[in-house]
C-alpha cells in the first residue's frame, strides 16, 4: 500500500452547525488553523465564531453554497488550506468532490473517492456485501418500469431507498402496490435534491427490526479496527433521534457476527478513514446488511465516550498518512453512553420544523454530559438547513445511570422561542420498554399516543407557575421601610389573571418586600414565596419549606415562558385568543391557503379548476431539509395557484385560492 504523508497547518470545514463546531474543537486541540464557510444569513453562527478564519460563499440555496463543490474548492485555494473535512451530509459522500480535492492537491479528510463510489452507492455496496457473503435482503433496482415489475415478487410492505444517500432522505414505505409508482417518483426527486442522484431501489420492509451499526476505522498502512456497535432504533421519519452504545440486550454471539461482517466488508475493499456499517436485526436475531456510510456519523460521540477515542482526530491523522493510534487489542469500552438529538420541530404537529429566533437558553452544567451544538441563543434558524440544534450525550457507569443523567439534564435544559422535541425525548426515556432496552424501529409508532400526549397540570404545579409569574412580574428590591408595605397598597390594587393551556388563575398580590412575596390564588389560602433568587433564565424560590427551580424567559411580546420539571408552558396575562379550529364551521369560509412556514415549494399536486377533497395533499413544502405536505382543509375547487414549483416562499405567503 502506497504511503503518503502530509503536514497539515490549516483545514477548511465544508459544513456548518454542530458538526462544524465539533471538528473545529479537535482541529484546534491539534494545533491546526480552521476555516469556516458560511452564507450571508449565517454570519453570527457558532461555527463561524469558533473558526480562526471565515469564508463567505456566494448564493443562498444549498445548490449554490454547501453543495457547490467548485465554489468550496475555490475558497479552499484562496485560503491556502491543506485539507478539507466534509463532516456529514452535504458533500461528505460525494466521490466527485473527493476527487476534485485530490485534483487540486487538497487532502480530503475521509475515504478515497473509489471507496465512496463503491460503498456510498447502495446498489454497488450490496454487490460487494454479497461477495463477502454478508446476509442481504432481496432488492430490486433499475428503471421505474423494472422496479414496478419486480415489486410483484416481494411481500408487502416495500421500502424505497435512495441509492446514493441515507439519513432517511429519499426513503418511503409503501403498503399498497398502486402507490408505488407515485412514491418512487417522489423518493427519486428527494434523492436528487439531497444527493445529486435520483437513483432508487426497493427491498423488503422488515417489521420491527433493530438498527445496529458498527464504527470502523482504517488507515493507509493496512490496519482496520472496529470501535464496537451502536443502537440507533429510536427514529422518527426514518431519522435517528436517540442512539446508544453498547447496544442493550444484544447477545454476544450476535454482536460478534455483526462486528465480524462489518470488518470483513471494510477489509475486503481496503477501506480507509472513518466509516459505519449498518445492519437490520430481526426479532429472531438474524442480521442483514443495510448500508455503509463513508463519513463520520451524527452519533459518533457515544462511541467516543465509551472508548475514549477521538474519532475526528483519527480521521485527520489517517488523512495525513499516519497509522491508527490503536491496535484492536488495545481498544476497550467502559460504561454506557446515550445521545439525544434536539431538533427544532413540533412533535404535536407531525414533527413539522420549527423556525424563528432562539430567544434564550438555559444549559445546566453537569460533569457527565457532553453537548455538541451549533445553534445558540439569539440565532435565527434558517429554513434551508437541517433542524438539528444540539446533541446531548450522557455517560454513565451503566445504562441505567446514563439514562438518569440524561433525564436530569433534559429536565433542566431550556430552549425558548422555538419548539423542540425535548419533551418527546424525555417521555421516551421514561418509557418502561425503553428503560429495559426492549425496543425496535417501530418504537414511535407503537408508543405514539403516549409520547405525544400532554401531561396534565397538577394543583401543586399551579402554585409554582403562579409564584414564578408573580415573582418575575413584580420582584424588585423595595426598601423594608417602604410605606406601601405598611398600608397594604399591593393588596388593594394588584390582581392578575393568567392563562395557559386552558387554565385561568386569579392571583392577588397581598404583599411584597425585600425578602418575601405573598400571593393568593383563586381566593385560596395565602402562599408565601421566599428565598427568591433570579438569574439569567433561571429562577428559584421556596414555598412551604420546599425549594423550587424554574427556567424562564420574558419575551418582548409580554409572554412568560416558564419551564418546571421538564415541562415548558407559555403564560399570558391577556385572555387567550380564540384560535381557528378546523372542526368548526368557519373552515367553510376559508378560501385561501398560506404558507405555514418559510421554505421552498418542491411539488404541486393541486390544479386550477379541479376539485379537491379534505385531506388531499395539495403541495409539498421543503423546510429545514424536511418535506412537509400541505393538505386540503375542506372539499372545494381550486380557483388559483399563486406559486410555482421550486419557488421560495415566506411565512404566510399566499399559496392558493379556492371557490
TrEMBL record:
Residues 126-320 form the ATP-grasp domain. The keyword Nucleotide-binding applies. Its cofactor is biotin. The keyword Ligase applies. Keywords: ATP-binding, Biotin, Ligase, Nucleotide-binding. Residues 590-659 form the Lipoyl-binding domain. PROSITE patterns: ATP_GRASP, BC, BIOTIN, BIOTINYL_LIPOYL, CPSASE_2. One of its GO terms (molecular function) is ATP binding. InterPro entries: ATP-grasp, BC-like_N, Biotin_BS, Biotin_carboxylase_complex, Biotin_carboxylation_dom, Biotin_COase_C, Biotin_lipoyl, CPAse_ATP-bd. Residues 7-449 form the Biotin carboxylation domain. It comes from the Bacteria. This is Acetyl-/propionyl-coenzyme A carboxylase alpha chain. It comes from Saccharicrinis fermentans DSM 9555 = JCM 21142.
Amino acid at each position: 500500500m502506497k504511503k503518503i504523508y502530509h503536514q497539515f497547518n490549516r483545514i477548511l470545514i465544508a459544513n456548518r452547525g454542530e458538526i462544524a463546531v465539533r471538528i473545529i474543537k479537535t482541529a484546534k486541540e491539534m494545533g491546526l488553523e480552521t476555516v469556516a464557510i458560511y452564507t450571508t444569513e449565517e454570519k453570527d453562527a457558532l461555527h463561524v465564531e469558533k473558526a480562526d478564519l471565515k469564508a463567505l460563499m456566494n448564493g443562498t440555496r444549498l445548490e449554490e453554497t454547501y453543495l457547490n463543490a467548485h465554489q468550496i474548492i475555490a475558497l479552499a485555494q484562496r485560503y491556502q488550506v491543506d485539507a478539507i473535512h466534509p463532516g456529514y451530509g452535504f458533500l461528505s459522500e460525494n466521490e466527485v468532490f473527493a476527487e476534485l480535492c485530490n485534483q487540486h492537491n487538497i487532502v480530503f479528510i475521509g475515504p478515497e473517492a473509489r471507496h465512496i463510489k463503491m460503498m456510498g452507492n447502495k446498489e454497488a455496496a450490496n454487490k460487494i456485501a454479497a461477495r463477502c457473503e454478508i446476509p442481504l435482503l432481496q432488492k430490486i433496482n433499475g428503471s421505474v418500469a423494472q422496479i414496478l415489475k419486480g415489486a410483484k415478487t416481494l411481500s408487502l410492505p416495500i421500502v424505497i431507498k435512495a441509492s446514493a444517500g441515507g439519513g432517511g432522505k429519499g426513503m418511503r414505505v409503501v403498503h399498497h402496490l398502486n402507490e408505488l409508482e407515485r412514491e418512487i417518483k417522489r423518493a427519486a426527486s428527494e434523492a436528487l435534491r439531497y444527493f445529486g442522484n435520483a437513483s432508487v431501489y426497493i427491498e423488503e420492509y422488515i417489521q420491527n427490526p433493530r438498527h445496529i451499526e458498527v464504527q470502523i476505522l482504517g488507515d493507509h498502512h493496512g490496519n482496520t479496527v472496529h470501535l464496537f456497535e451502536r443502537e440507533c432504533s429510536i427514529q422518527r421519519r426514518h431519522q435517528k433521534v436517540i442512539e446508544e452504545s453498547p447496544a442493550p440486550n444484544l447477545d454476544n454471539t450476535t454482536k460478534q457476527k455483526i462486528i465480524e461482517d462489518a470488518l470483513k466488508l471494510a477489509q475486503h475493499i481496503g477501506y480507509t478513514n472513518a466509516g459505519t456499517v449498518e445492519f437490520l436485526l430481526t426479532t429472531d436475531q438474524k442480521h442483514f446488511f443495510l448500508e455503509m456510510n463513508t463519513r463520520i456519523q451524527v452519533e459518533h460521540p457515544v462511541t467516543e465516550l465509551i472508548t475514549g477515542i477521538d474519532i475526528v482526530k483519527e480521521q485527520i491523522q489517517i488523512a495525513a498518512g499516519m497509522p491508527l493510534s490503536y491496535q484492536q487489542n488495545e481498544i476497550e469500552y467502559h460504561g454506557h453512553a446515550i445521545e439525544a438529538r434536539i431538533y427544532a420541530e413540533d412533535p404535536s404537529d407531525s414533527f413539522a420544523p420549527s423556525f424563528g429566533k432562539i430567544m434564550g437558553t438555559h444549559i445546566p452544567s453537569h460533569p457527565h454530559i457532553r453537548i455538541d451544538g451549533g445553534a445558540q441563543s439569539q440565532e435565527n434558524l434558517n429554513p434551508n438547513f437541517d433542524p438539528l440544534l444540539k446533541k446531548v450525550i450522557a455517560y454513565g457507569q451503566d445504562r441505567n445511570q446514563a439514562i438518569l443523567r440524561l433525564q436530569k439534564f433534559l429536565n433542566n435544559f431550556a430552549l425558548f422561542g422555538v419548539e423542540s422535541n425535548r419533551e418527546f425525548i424525555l417521555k421516551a426515556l421514561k418509557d418502561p420498554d425503553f428503560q429495559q432496552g426492549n425496543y425496535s424501529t417501530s418504537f414511535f409508532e407503537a408508543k405514539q399516543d403516549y409520547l405525544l400526549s400532554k401531561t396534565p397540570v397538577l394543583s401543586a404545579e399551579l402554585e409554582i407557575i403562579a409564584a414564578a409569574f408573580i415573582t418575575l412580574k413584580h420582584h424588585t428590591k423595595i426598601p423594608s421601610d417602604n410605606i406601601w408595605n405598611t398600608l397594604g397598597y399591593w393588596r388593594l390594587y394588584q390582581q392578575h389573571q393568567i392563562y395557559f393551556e386552558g387554565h385561568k388563575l386569579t392571583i392577588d398580590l397581598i404583599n411584597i418586600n425585600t425578602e418575601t412575596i405573598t400571593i393568593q390564588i383563586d381566593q385560596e389560602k395565602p402562599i408565601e414565596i421566599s428565598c427568591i433568587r433570579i438569574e439569567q433564565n433561571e429562577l428559584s424560590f421556596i414555598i412551604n419549606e420546599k425549594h423550587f427551580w424554574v427556567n424562564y424567559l420574558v419575551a418582548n411580546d409580554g409572554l412568560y415562558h416558564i419551564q418546571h420539571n421538564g415541562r415548558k408552558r407559555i403564560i399570558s396575562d391577556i385572555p387567550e385568543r380564540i384560535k381557528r379550529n378546523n372542526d368548526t364551521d368557519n373552515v367553510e369560509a376559508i378560501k385561501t391557503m398560506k404558507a405555514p412556514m418559510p421554505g421552498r415549494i418542491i411539488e404541486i399536486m393541486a390544479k386550477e379548476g379541479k376539485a379537491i377533497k379534505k385531506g388531499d395533499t395539495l403541495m409539498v413544502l421543503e423546510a429545514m431539509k424536511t418535506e412537509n405536505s400541505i393538505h386540503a382543509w375542506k372539499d372545494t375547487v381550486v380557483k388559483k395557484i399563486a406559486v410555482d414549483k421550486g419557488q421560495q416562499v415566506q411565512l404566510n405567503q399566499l399559496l392558493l385560492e379556492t371557490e
